[in-house]
Amino acid sequence: MSAFAADFIDILIWVLTLAIFGRVLLSWISPRGNDPVTPLLYQVTEPILAPLRRLLPQMGMLDLAPMVAILVLNYLIRPLVLQLF
C-alpha cells in the first residue's frame, strides 16, 4: 500500500509541475486566455500559486510563484514524501 501511495504522489507532483509549465507557456503564447485549455490549467494550478503570490514580493510584471511552486514541489515535497513511504 505504501508503494502505491508513493507512486501516486510522485505522479501527482509530476502532473502539477507539467500543468504549471503549461500555464506559463500559455501565458506567453495566449495572454488573453482565449483557448479552451487555459481555464482548466488555471483551475488546477491556482490553488497552489495563489498562496505563494501572497507570500512573495511583487516584482513588477514578473511572477515568481510558478518557479517557486515547481522548486517546492520537486525539491522539498517529493523527497520528503518519498522518504516517508
- Envelope shape: globular
Outline the low-pLDDT stretches. Answer: none
- Number of helical stretches of at least 4 residues: 3
Provide the structure class.
mainly alpha
> What can be said about the biggest beta sheet?
none
Determine Rg (CA atoms, Å). 14 Å
User: In terms of quaternary structure, what is this?
Assistant: single chain
Pattern of helices and strands: HHH
Summed up, the domain count is: 1
Helicity range of the residues? over 70%
* Terminal-residue CA separation: 9 Å
Would you tell me the overall average pLDDT?
A: 91
The strand count comes to 0
Question: What is the strand content?
Answer: under 5%
List keywords for this structure.
about 80% helix; 3 helices; about 80 residues
Can you put this structure into words, describing what you see?
The mean pLDDT is 91. With 85 residues, the chain is mainly alpha-helical. It has one domain. It is built from 3 helices and no strands.
